[in-house]
Amino acid sequence: MIMQIMKMISRLTEPEKRRQAENRVNPAFRLCVAILTILLCALSKNAVFTGSVIVVLLLRVAFLAPREIANVLGKTVLPVLFSALILLPAALLGQPGTLLTVTMKVFESVLLLALLNHSVSWKDMSEAMGEMHFPQILIMTLDTMIRFLVILGRFMGRVLEAVGLRKVGKDDWKHAGTGGILGVTYLKAQQMEVQTEEAMACRCFEGTYRSRRKRKFGRRDALYLLLAPVILTWFVYTQALM
Amino acid sequence: MHIPDNYLSPQTCAVMGAAMVPVWVISVKKIKKELEPAKLPMLGIGAAFSFLGMMFNIPLPGGTTGHAVGGTMIAVALGPYAACISISIALLVQAFLFGDGGILSFGANCFNMAFVLPFVGYAVYRLVERALSGRGEFRSRSLRAAFARGGKMAGAYIARQAHSEGLTQDGKISGPAAGGQAHSGRKHTISTIAAGIGSYVGINAAALCAAIEFGIQPMLFRDSAGNAMYCPYPLSVSVPAMLIGHLTVFGAAEVVFTVLVLSFLEKAQPELFAAGADARLLRAKGYTQKVVVRKQPCPGDGVNVTVKPARTSKKLIAFFVCLIAAVPLGLLAEGTAWGEWGADEIAQTGAGYTPSGMLHGFSFSALIPDYSMAGIPSWIGYIFSAAIGAAVLIIAFKLLSLAVPARKSSAAE
Q: Beta strands of B243-390 (E only): which ranges?
């Protein structure tokens, strides 16, 4: 369990350097194009558009480093299997096309978001959402949640390690202690909530996310934005095919 | 050259498949021994190049088509064993995903294109290179490329270290970086010529093998009416039919493809070029051949080098994208390659009947048959297929490289 928690924390706190090196395009534009693509995939009536997006994404994935590929593709396995399982009755009742189309759409959406998550850090993402006028309360909730997942995850890891070191042999105390660990974590969360509120007041942060740095609109941004009309045109073309 | 199902008897397919098993086993062992896990993704890149090269169909007068394979190209870049595995996987993807080449005849296709082609091509390449360069100074393209670029690359580093260790005394590797630069132009030409000749001989050897496999079918398998059960054409027809195209147009296409891709890869991804033979030689002297090297002090004697995973260069990515975008050119060639007709076509090709083995033979429905998808224009389907095939091959080999444990450097051992 300790290992699982550590694994989750390490995923949430992946090195920023790698991401920043790749993140030359304004994250807001990347988020815009990603949302547009997912929306169009959901709207598409045939598999051609979704298939073409998957092909492009797979090519993008193919040129990542092996460990990055495993990380990105690993995130798609469970949602795809789950959706395939949910839609299996449809295939058994004579609608195999539904299974294929929906599974493809799920794969495309998760793969796109996994790639976005791979190349854009959470900090940049919350900034991008602010630029795109997402509700501030939503961004703050998401931001705080991610932060607390990491902090409380580490705290729980330390508590579990301490319990593990103090106990020898098998007994029911470990199971009984689970509630205690959760209770301690809850108390810690409450304590940190107060501390966060005080820290926000000290820093005059009332929950509004503003971009600290001014990003210049560069050639890469322009090229990336060009993708939006290209994707839209391709969507219209593919919908006319069938 | 992709033999479909039911052109060869199941017995022939079984023999060819059995013949390939030891080749695959030995190739995997050799790759494990000679190729660093960090370089395994390069097998995928080689396989993807081969896959894309096979999509460019070239027409011949008379309605037949053919294509380059690129087996010698991979053999020169990564060694013949790596080429064998790369092309085998490319053929597997083609057979199962696109229905190009049969499932039963997979062993025969691998024998021709993944075994005969790269091994013959590589042997001829080495012979020609050695003969033209006189004393056989440069054992492979890798170190020649490294010499030509001075100290900028890993190969140059290894070569310098090897040179300082006196490996030149073997007559296997010679010339410091500075000296290599003076001769690099001539050596490059020699190596390119050798690769071109090797690829030409390799693809013709593979075509000859395929022709023999086709041609022996009517000799061995006939029904009660005396008709051939599988491929109806005897050796007197199949050998000239296969070789005329390969000795002329398809052979030339293989040469052009090999030379162009090798020249490009040498500039875009120089760390590709570090053949297994050199690794063995250098390891014997206490060096480990890696993609990117950094010298580190080692408790034992010699130098330990660390691995950084190879990043695919932007030039290479651009080249891949251009190749994928250009694959619809392969659709300009109308007609079917010799020996790849469907059961409904073969009677009109001159056979006069449809062999019984083809009428009631094995059939398999591929996911994307003939690189086309229902309801969309053929050129879009062709581009999709090219992209899917290339991506699947590269991803598969990259994920495979994660599964292979990193080998301890010989210096540390």
A: 295-296, 304-305
The answer to whether the CB of A121 falls within 8 A of the CB of A94 is no
- Which chain A residues touch B399 with a CB distance below 8 Å? 66, 69-70, 73
Which residues does chain A have within 8 Å of residue B388's beta carbon, measured at their own beta carbons? 55, 58
CB B229 within 8 A of CB B222: yes
Identify all chain B residues contacting A242, using CB atoms and an 8 Å cutoff. Answer: 375
B392 and chain A in contact, CB less than 8 A: yes
Compare CB distances from B395 to A48, A61, A242 and report the shortest one's residue: A61
Q: How far apart are alpha carbons B257 and B192 in whole angstroms?
A: 12
CA distance B409 to B303: 9
Angular region, A211: left φ>0, alpha ψ -120 to 50, beta rest:
beta
Scanning A68-87 for CB atoms below 8 A from B yields 69-70, 73
CB contact under 8 A, A58 and B373: no
Residue B286 has what pLDDT? Answer: 47
Give the Cα separation of A139 and B353 in Å (integer). 72
Mean pLDDT value across residues B397-404:
84
Beta bridge partners of B228: B222
> Are A58 and B387 a contacting pair at CB < 8 A?
yes
Burial A203-220 (b: 16+ CB within 10 A, else e): eeeeeebeeeeeeeeeee
Task: Kindly provide the ipTM of the predicted complex, given to two decimals.
Answer: 0.74
DSSP A212-228: SS-----HHHHHHHHHH
pLDDT value of position B148: 43
Name the pLDDT band for A212 (thresholds 50, 70, 90): low
Question: How far apart (Å, rounded) are the C-alpha atoms in residues B55 and B170?
Answer: 43
CA dist list (Å): B129 to A99, B123, B177, B184 = 56, 10, 20, 14
Compute the average pLDDT of residues A176-202. Answer: 83
The percentage of residues in chain B with a pLDDT greater than 90, rounded to a whole number, is: 24
* Cβ contacts of B398 on chain A, cutoff 8 Å: 62, 64-66, 69
Q: Could you say which of B317, B391, B401 has the minimum Cβ distance to residue A58?
A: B391
Q: Does B387 touch chain A (CB under 8 A)?
A: yes
Which tens digit of pLDDT belongs to each residue from B323-381? 888 888 888 777 778 877 877 777 777 777 888 888 887 888 888 888 888 778 888 88
Average of per-residue pLDDT values in chain B: 77
Q: Which of B252, B327, B337, B328 is nearest to B59 (CA)?
A: B337
Lowest mean pLDDT among A97-111, A227-241, B187-201, B265-279: B265-279
> Would you state the pLDDT for residue B152?
40
pLDDT band at B147 (very low <50, low <70, confident <90, very high): very low
Test A61 with B391 for CB contact under 8 angstroms.
yes
